[in-house]
Amino acid sequence: MSEDHIEEQVISEAHDETAEHFDGKYPIEIEGLTNSFGDQVIHENLSLKVKRGEILGVVGGSGTGKSVLMRSVIGLQIPDTGTIKVFGNDVTAAEPDEEIGIRSRWGILFQGGALFSTLTVGENVEVPIKQFYPELEPELRHEIARYKTVMSGLPAEAASKYPSELSGGMKKRAGLARALALDPELLFLDEPTAGLDPVGAAKFDELTRDLADTLGLTVFLITHDLDTLYAICDRVAVLADKQVIAVGTIPELLETKHPWIEEYFNGPRSRAASATHERAQAMDKQPESGA
Ligand SMILES: Nc1ncnc2c1ncn2[C@@H]1O[C@H](COP(=O)(O)OP(=O)(O)OP(=O)(O)O)[C@@H](O)[C@H]1O
Ligand SMILES: [Mg+2]
Questions:
Q1: Which of 56, 113, 83, 38 is closest to 239 using CA atoms?
Q2: Using a 6 Å cutoff on CB, does residue 242 contact ligand 1?
Q3: 52: how many CB neighbours lie within 10 A of its CB?
Q4: Which CDD domains does the record cross-reference, listed alphabetically (predicted)?
């Protein structure tokens, strides 16, 4: 074997060991998914592909199964039929070992936050770190937790506070810090701005966009917030009639002429969100005065 070949082999073996980062086109691929509870069918033959690096907004009326869809992707809801691939691995068929490998590569902010009320913010962030890296020194773990807390826009002191001592917006940020604990490639956010005032919601959106861009994240973002859709989502998937009836940019969705989509994006709230977004973009494009 020539030296070149040996070098190639060493490099490719080293690469295999650290072959963590997904470089395929779709980190999430859902096909033919059916979910039901008793005789209530929630999803029927639903398909959806999430592109690497995008923020995908997921919308649909209340009770259409957005949260159930997210729970299926992260393996908390076993579907009746269908396949769900995450980073190319079929999560519905995964062996427990494989599953752990995949689970450490995503972060989740559940609807409502779901922080452990008896743990401080820092301890909450440490939970997944302890789970996946039990051998890590406590000092280093605390340090990572502090870093993620600050990265999520909270003051460092917040790490020692309990969830009951935080405002709604701070709780969301603490939940985000925990979701980012393991440097995920994929982030699931279920209604992250629900219950926040408009300024807090806009700041949270901005943080999500910044983190997604700087960390190269793919984001699966369930939301009712029209401002969020216009401001930070690359594409939007619409859940209705037990399926994803359309996926695309907002102008592309409007071309589908589906009654729910038209009503949703042409209603007065949507028009206001769109106008605000357009004004903000126009302001961005204006040359700075006095430069
Ligand atoms: N564990 C469960 N057992 C039985 N039914 C369930 C369960 N989880 C969800 N459902 C039902 O599935 C349907 C979809 O619920 P889901 O929480 O996904 O809605 P959603 O689209 O997230 O709504 P929202 O916008 O209000 O959060 C609802 O009718 C709900 O009652
Ligand atoms: Mg929900």
A1: 56
A2: no
A3: 18
A4: ABC_Org_Solvent_Resistant
Between the CA of 52 and the centroid of ligand 1 the distance, in Å, is 27
The tokens for 237 are 């998937």
d(CA 256, CA 248): 10
Count Cβ neighbours within 10 Å for each residue of 239-253 and write b for 16 or more, e otherwise. bbebbbbbbeebeeb
Please state, in angstroms and rounded to a whole number, the distance separating the CA atoms of residues 209 and 111.
Answer: 19
Confidence category of residue 152, pLDDT binned at 50, 70, 90? very high
Query: What 8-state DSSP symbol labels residue 159?
Result: G
Q: Are strands 235-240 and 243-248 parallel, antiparallel or unpaired?
A: antiparallel
- Is-contact 229 250, C-beta < 8 A? yes
State the Cα angle at 288 between 286 and 290, rounded to 5°: 140
d(CA 111, CA 219): 15
Q: Which two tokens stand for residue 168?
A: 């709604």
* 221-20-28 Cα angle (round to 5): 35
Task: State in Å: Cα 190 to ligand 2 middle.
Answer: 7
DSSP 287: P
Domain boundaries, the chain: 118-183
Is the pTM higher than 0.70? The answer reads: yes
Q: What is the C-alpha to C-alpha distance for residues 203 and 193, in angstroms, rounded to an integer? A: 10
- Report the pLDDT value the prediction gives residue 182, as an integer from 0 to 100: 93
Ligand 1 atom 25: the closest Cα is on which residue? 62
Tell me which residue of 56, 54, 81 sits closest to 66, measured CA to CA. Answer: 56
